[in-house]
Amino acid sequence: MAEGETEKEYDTRKTIEGLRERFQNLTATLKESSGSSLEASLHFCQEFCQVMENAGRWKTDEDPLPLLEVYTVAILSFAKATSCLSSECENVPLLLEKLALSCVELLLLLPQHVPVALWEEFQSSMKLAHSLSQETGHTQLCGLSVMAQQGGVWANATLSSILANGSPQTDHGQFWDRSQWVLPGIIIQPMHRALNTI
C-alpha cells in the first residue's frame, strides 16, 4: 500500500491493475490465435464481457469514480484490440456501442468535481480510443470522445439544458451532429446488466 493511500484506494488500484492485465492477456490471446479470425473475435468479445461483468461490483450510487476508471481501461483496451478483430464479427460494433452508452450514463452520475488527474486520464484515453477505433472504421466512440474533451460532463451547455428540460442553444449543434445519439428518449443500461444481450 502506497504512503497516504487508504484501504479503499488500494483495493481500487489493485482491481484496476488486474483488469488491465486481463485485457492485455485477452488481446495477446487474440493475436496468437491460430483459428479463424471470426471465431477468435467472437471469443474475445465473450471473454471481454465476462471481465466487465466481474468488474460490476461497485455501486454507482455509492461511489461512481472507481467505475469511471474501469470504463477508461476497458474502452481503451477494446479500442487497442480492434485492429485484430474481424470485420465480420457483429459483436464488435455492438460492444463498442454498449461501452460508450454505458459510460455516458455513468458520466451523468458523476459529481460535478471529479479529481483532475482522473478526468485527464479519462480525456486522453477516450481521445486515443476514438482515434484507434476510427482507423478500423468504427465510429461508436465519437460522441463519448466529444463529451470527454469538455471540462466535465456538465460543462456542455446543450446536454445540461436538455437534461433540465430546456431547449438546446442552436450554436451547440455540432455536439449532437457528431454524437450520433437521439436524446432524450434513449434508455442506457449499466454495462454489467446490458452485456448479457450479446
TrEMBL record:
UniProt GO MF annotations? DNA binding; DNA-binding transcription factor activity, RNA polymerase II-specific; zinc ion binding
* GO CC entries: nucleus
Kindly provide the name given to this protein in its UniProt entry: Zinc finger protein 292a
What organism does this protein naturally occur in? Gadus morhua
Output the lineage of the source organism: Eukaryota, Metazoa, Chordata, Craniata, Vertebrata
